Each structure stands twice: as C-alpha cells, then as structure tokens.
C-alpha cells in the first residue's frame, strides 16, 4: 500500500482548534492547499475579514493568517466542496457535554461529529483520509468508520485516523509551531499505517520526526483524555493542598516549588488557583468518568470524578472566603472582579471560574463590577444568564456592571477579586486603586498574581489563595 501524498486538506469546523491548527499547517506547508469550512457564516466572515478581525483571540494567530490567507489557506461555508476537493479531512467540530438523555452531564454529545461524518459520506466521490481532531470518547473512530462505510459510494474508501490536538489556548500558536508531540493513531493494518504515514509527512514539514508518535487508534483517542485528566488532577491536587496551607500557615508557592523540584514531579502546572476552567478539562474528565462507568469500573469513575469535585470545592471555598472576610456579609457591597476569561491571553470564557464566583456574589446580593481586557460584553451577559437561568438579564444587569478598565471597576469597591491572571492586573496603579476604594480595602488574589507585601504597604488587606498569612 503506497502512501498518499496529501496536497489538499479540508478542516470541518473553524473554531478554537480547527482554525489555529489548520492555519499553522497552511503556513508551514505552502505546497498544501488548506480549506477550513464551517456552517457558521458569521465565523467564516470573521476569518475572512479584510481587517483581520478574527473570531478568536490568540497571540500570533493574526500574523499566521495574514501570511497564509488567500495563498494556500481559505475559509469557506461551502462544506461540500471542501470535502469533495480534499484528500485529507480533519473533523474539528464541537463535542460539548450532553445536556439531556443518556449520560447527560457526563457523556460527550457526538451529534456534531456524526453529522459531519455523514456529510463526508454523502458528498465524497473519491478516497479520503478522515482525521478525528475533536476530542472524542474512546472508540468513536469505529462509529465513524461504520457510518462512512455504510453510506459511501462504490470505489470510495475511507481511512480513519485519530490526531488529537494538545494545544493550550493563549499559547496555541507557539504550541503548534513547537509541539511537545504530535500523536497519530491508526488501525494497525497496511492501509491504516499508510494513511498514518501520509499525515505524518504533513507534520514532518516542521515537526522533528522523533516528536511524531504513531500508535493504535484507541490508544490515541484515550491518550488525549488521559493527558487532560492528569493535568487537571495536578491542579486539583495543588488546590487541595492550598486549603491545607491556608489552615496551617504554610505557603502553597513554597510547597509547589519544593515538590516540583523533584525531577519526577517537575515544576510545571503546579500553580494553585481559584479553580481550573476551559473547554477541555472538566468535559474530558466527565467523559472519562462516563467511559469508566460504561465499562463497569465504578472505582475508576469515582477516582476521576474527585478531580472535578475538588475543583468545584475550590471555587466555592474562595467565594466563601470573600464573604467571611468581609464581615460575613456582602449584601449591597461593591466587589470588583478582575478577569472573566478562564485564563490569561484568551477571550474564551468556557467553564471560567469567574462565572461561578460572580453567580455566588449575586446570590449574596452584592453589586459586582467586572473587567476583562479581551472578553466581549455580550459573552459576559450570555454566560451570566446561562449561569442563573431563572433570573432575567435585566435583573442581572441591576447587580452586575461591565467596566472598561480595571481602575474603573475598582472605584468605590470594598474588595477586588482577581479571577484571571492577566499581566496588566499585576501592573495596575495599585496606589490609585486604593485611593478610589472604600476602607478597609480588600484584595483577594485567586491567581497568586500580585505582590501581597507591596499591596499591604499601600494599606490593602490581602488574601492570597494558598497562603495562611495574616491579612
Ligand atoms: C488544556 C490542555 O493544557 C491542552 O493540552 C489541551 O489541548 C486542552 O486543554 P487549555 O484548557 O487551553 O488547555 O488551558 P490550560 O493552560 O491547560 O489551563 C486550563 C485551566 O487550568 C485554566 O483555567 C488555568 O488557569 C488552570 N491552571 C493551569 C491552573 O489553575 N494552574 C496551573 O498550574 C495551570
Ligand atoms: P473547538 O473548541 O473544539 O474548536 P468550537 O465550538 O470553537 O470548538 O468550534 C467548532 C466549530 O465547528 C463551530 O464553529 C461549529 O459551527 C462547527 N461545526 C459543527 N458542526 C459542523 C458541521 N457539520 N459542518 C461544519 N461545521 C460544523
């Protein structure tokens, strides 16, 4: 079986994963034509916008799109043509957690993957390599293959690969330029291995050969869930320890530093926080929980579930600290929440801990000023409405205001809550912030961001996650 030379790639789904990934493939492989298609016209229009107002914020992305767009990178709503023209198709559609039916709240909703797969089968007229890019439960490739084979035209063969994406938001472009590894899973048949080589050759244009790992299809699918579960577990572990630090007077930064110095543990991803967010960690762990339960492994399911339980506890614990510290009531008090994105350098708010904090402050009848340098205002309203479905937006807006700077958000507030580690929050004029606040002025640092001693010298009472020191 000879290896197909990939010259035309189609990516179905122009979101956070498909957009940056395929833009970088186009940049690094000028001889390959890359077309990213999506049903969402507004999204495609934004990718094509003349002034490069792209639909997602990601450092370095605009530069990549400027270099490759209309050269060998195209964005289109013509999904069928994209499929027909391509030798290789990435399926990069959304796989949210199911909201109803069997597995609701845990299992992945594979409806979008299935619809995209059915579309490929319906319109393809030549052989295709179909690549799962979206994070999917183990053995989804088998369902895709069954659908493709049952609906394909004669003389049209499909090879399925799994090629999960490990990029992190905020560093997507550098992650894609220099990935720790590229993982490709295939069936261990001659055809499967040939398809795997074809995709590996695309990445070999810029990724060193020893970083391209080829494994079986099911291992590849499971590795993505496993990597995210283990990363999230590290955060829940350090956050669990942060609670012990606060109770004992230990300092979580020092503990993390000491533990991370052990080369077997390593220093990365040990930063205590108000809790992890993002579109992947919670979703993938719940997926793993569901998978374990389906496989009749209840102890395994329970083990992974604790990672999410701890994360919820951490968010609740933090908002309770705010209420307890402000003399057990925040009713009518103004709280400035700095940051709404789930982490710095992204405008993404999916599962952001800020949403939970603000909802908790709302239920305590506080007044909340929010500021985030990247998140669109409509997104903040949409997230807060979704978090409190029985409260009309007009009522939410009586309690919550969106501000256009950190300084404005902190004006006349009793407390500042740092929910996202945007660098600009470390560097704001804290003297000025202090002058504008009611006294005593409190700062609650949920991201280990600010210099607590410096702020205390100004006059603030500072509470930092994972530090048991006196305010
Ligand atoms: C994650 C994985 O890192 C990535 O490999 C995968 O492809 C997608 O999921 P992402 O969700 O974009 O990426 O961001 P990540 O940097 O992993 O952060 C996730 C959450 O954990 C954020 O809310 C972040 O603030 C939090 N976090 C991260 C901590 O609280 N402490 C840390 O030490 C690291
Ligand atoms: P991710 O973070 O996984 O990239 P997003 O929600 O950002 O997820 O993006 C997924 C994209 O996939 C959305 O823009 C959605 O419109 C698109 N999409 C979903 N189903 C299809 C489909 N059948 N055909 C084309 N695009 C699709």
TrEMBL record:
Keywords: NAD, Oxidoreductase. The keyword DNA damage does not apply. One of its GO terms (molecular function) is NAD binding. The keyword Coiled coil does not apply. Gene3D superfamilies: Cytochrome c1, transmembrane anchor, C-terminal (1.20.5.100), NAD(P)-binding Rossmann-like Domain (3.40.50.720). Coiled coil: none annotated. GO terms for biological process: glycosaminoglycan biosynthetic process; UDP-glucuronate biosynthetic process. InterPro entries: 6-PGluconate_DH-like_C_sf, NAD(P)-bd_dom_sf, UDP-Glc/GDP-Man, UDP-Glc/GDP-Man_DH_C, UDP-Glc/GDP-Man_DH_C_sf, UDP-Glc/GDP-Man_DH_dimer, UDP-Glc/GDP-Man_DH_N, UDPglc_DH_euk. Pfam families: UDPG_MGDP_dh, UDPG_MGDP_dh_C, UDPG_MGDP_dh_N. It is an enzyme of class 1 (oxidoreductase). It catalyses: UDP-alpha-D-glucose + 2 NAD(+) + H2O = UDP-alpha-D-glucuronate + 2 NADH + 3 H(+). Residues 336-452 form the UDP-glucose/GDP-mannose dehydrogenase C-terminal domain. Its EC number is 1.1.1.22. NAD(+) binds at residues 13-18, 38, 43, 93-97, 134-135, 169, 280-283, 350. One of its GO terms (cellular component) is nucleus. Pathway: Nucleotide-sugar biosynthesis; UDP-alpha-D-glucuronate biosynthesis; UDP-alpha-D-glucuronate from UDP-alpha-D-glucose: step 1/1. The active site is at 280 (nucleophile). PANTHER family: UDP-GLUCOSE 6-DEHYDROGENASE, UDP-GLUCOSE DEHYDROGENASE/UDP-MANNAC DEHYDROGENASE. Belongs to the UDP-glucose/GDP-mannose dehydrogenase family. This is UDP-glucose 6-dehydrogenase.
């Amino acid at each position: 079986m000879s290896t197909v030379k990939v010259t035309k790639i189609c990516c179905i789904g122009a979101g956070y994963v498909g957009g940056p990934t395929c833009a970088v493939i186009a940049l690094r492989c000028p001889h390959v034509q890359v077309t990213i298609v999506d049903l969402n016209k507004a999204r495609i229009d934004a990718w094509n916008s003349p002034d490069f107002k792209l639909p997602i914020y990601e450092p370095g992305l605009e530069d990549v799109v400027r270099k490759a767009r209309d050269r060998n990178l195209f964005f289109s709503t013509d999904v069928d043509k994209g499929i027909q023209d391509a030798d290789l198709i990435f399926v990069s559609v959304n796989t949210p957690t199911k909201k109803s039916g069997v597995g609701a709240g845990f299992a992945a909703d594979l409806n979008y993957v299935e619809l995209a797969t059915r579309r490929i089968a319906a319109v393809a007229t030549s052989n295709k390599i179909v690549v799962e890019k979206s994070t999917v439960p183990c053995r989804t490739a088998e369902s895709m293959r069954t659908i493709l084979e049952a609906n394909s035209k004669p003389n049209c063969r499909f090879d399925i690969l799994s090629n999960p994406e490990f990029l992190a938001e905020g560093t997507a472009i550098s992650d894609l330029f220099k990935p720790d590894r590229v993982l490709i899973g295939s069936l261990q048949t001659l055809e499967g291995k040939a398809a795997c080589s074809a995709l590996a050759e695309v990445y070999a244009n810029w990724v060193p050969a020893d970083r391209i790992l080829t494994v079986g299809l099911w291992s590849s699918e499971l590795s993505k869930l496993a990597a995210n579960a283990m990363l999230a577990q590290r955060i829940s572990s350090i956050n669990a320890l942060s609670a012990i630090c606060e109770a004992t007077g230990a300092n979580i930064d020092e503990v993390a530093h000491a533990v991370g110095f052990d080369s077997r543990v390593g220093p990365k991803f040990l930063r205590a926080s108000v809790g992890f967010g993002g579109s992947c960690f919670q979703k993938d762990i719940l997926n793993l929980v569901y998978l374990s339960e389906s496989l009749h492994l209840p102890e395994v399911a329970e083990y992974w579930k604790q990672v999410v339980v701890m994360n919820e506890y951490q968010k609740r614990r933090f908002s309770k600290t705010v209420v307890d510290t402000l003399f057990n009531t925040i009713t009518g008090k103004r709280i400035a929440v700095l940051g709404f994105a789930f982490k710095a350098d992204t405008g993404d708010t999916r599962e952001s801990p800020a949403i939970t904090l603000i909802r908790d402050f709302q239920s305590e009848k506080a007044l909340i000023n929010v500021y985030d340098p990247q998140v669109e205002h409509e997104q903040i309203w949409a997230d807060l409405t979704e978090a409190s479905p029985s409260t009309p937006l007009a009522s939410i807006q009586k309690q919550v205001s969106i501000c256009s700077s950190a300084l404005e958000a902190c004006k006349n507030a009793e407390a500042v809550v740092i929910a996202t580690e945007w660098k600009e929050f470390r560097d704001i004029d804290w003297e000025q912030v202090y002058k504008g606040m009611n006294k005593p002025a409190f700062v609650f640092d949920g991201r280990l961001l600010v210099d607590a001693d410096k702020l205390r010298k100004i006059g603030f009472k500072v509470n930092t996650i994972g530090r048991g020191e006196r305010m």
